[in-house]
């Protein structure tokens, strides 16, 4: 895999630092791809299996996936089908060492951005990535979901609060929380209408199921109000989904 010419790199450099997720069970390939894509200005998330990526699929900020087809228990093609089933239509570039026209056709039928046979030219990959991160309105649809965006913001703010919470006195809890994440929580409660996308509904249910506050002592807390809102939003989506 050669390095791209300066001319090609200048056309496709990525000043916005888009995140690319690389799903490949070969550690050498992951390392090589990370170095290459980082040199082009991308940020990188690395996953050794489809299962690893699926665990973070609802919360990743990746704008494109580079997926090896031969992954193990769950193949790259099966990963794509799983993601589509939950409404996450990521732009995907498939990679493979096997020349198989049937596999290529299956990948193209799944709507992949590109199908690259290893080893492939770096200029070819760079061009396909540039296309993938700018031309997939289906993928952007769930990112525009107000519930999905607010939940992502809430999770980031809540994590920042939790990471800084060591040593905070109980009497300072409400003040500190208000300064970090409760404003977003209130926005979620006030959302109207509650309709959301598949991804938003799943993220809402995931948050509810993982929350320790659902049965907390403070039953009138804003946290509990938000949890019940999320349950209703997910329920309403399921009821209206075709």
Q: Strand tally, please? A: 5
The succession of helices and strands, N to C, reads HEHEHEHEHEHHHHHHH
Under CATH, the homologous superfamily of the largest domain reads Response regulator
CATH class bucket of the largest domain? Alpha Beta
Average of pLDDT: 78
How would you describe this protein?
The protein has helices at 6-12, 27-39, 50-54, 76-85, 101-109, 122-132, 137-143, 146-163, 173-180, 182-190, 198-210, 222-240; strands at residues 19-23, 43-47, 64-68, 92-96, 114-117. It has 242 residues and is of the alpha/beta class. It has two domains: 6-139, 3-Layer(aba) Sandwich (Rossmann fold), CATH 3.40.50; 144-240. It has a five-stranded parallel sheet with strand order 2-1-3-4-5, with helices on both faces. Strand 3 (64-68), helix 4 and strand 4 (92-96) form a beta-alpha-beta unit. The longest helix is centred in the C-terminal third of the chain and has 19 residues, at 222-240. The chain starts with 5 loop residues before the first helix and ends with a helix.
């Amino acid at each position: 895999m050669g390095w791209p010419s300066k001319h090609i790199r200048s056309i496709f450099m990525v000043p916005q630092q888009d995140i690319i997720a690389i799903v490949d069970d070969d550690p050498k390939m992951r390392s090589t791809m990370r170095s290459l894509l980082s040199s082009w200005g991308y940020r990188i998330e690395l996953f050794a299996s489809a299962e690893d990526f699926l665990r973070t699929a609802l919360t990743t900020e990746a704008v494109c996936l580079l997926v090896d087809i031969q992954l193990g228990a769950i193949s790259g093609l099966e990963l794509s089908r799983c993601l589509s089933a939950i409404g996450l239509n990521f732009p995907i570039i498939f990679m493979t060492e096997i020349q198989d026209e049937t596999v290529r056709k299956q990948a193209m039928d799944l709507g992949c951005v590109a199908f690259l046979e290893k080893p492939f030219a770096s200029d070819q990959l760079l061009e396909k990535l540039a296309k993938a991160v700018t031309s997939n309105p289906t993928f952007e649809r769930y990112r525009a979901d107000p519930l999905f965006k607010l939940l992502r913001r809430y999770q980031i703010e809540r994590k920042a609060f939790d990471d800084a919470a060591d040593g905070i006195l109980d009497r300072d809890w409400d003040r500190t929380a208000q300064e970090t994440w409760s404003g977003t929580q209130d926005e979620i409660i006030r959302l109207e209408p509650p309709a959301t996308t598949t991804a938003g509904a799943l993220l809402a249910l995931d948050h509810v199921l993982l929350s320790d506050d659902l049965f907390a002592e403070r039953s009138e807390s804003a946290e509990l109000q938000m949890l019940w809102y999320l349950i209703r939003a997910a329920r309403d989506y399921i009821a209206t989904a075709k």
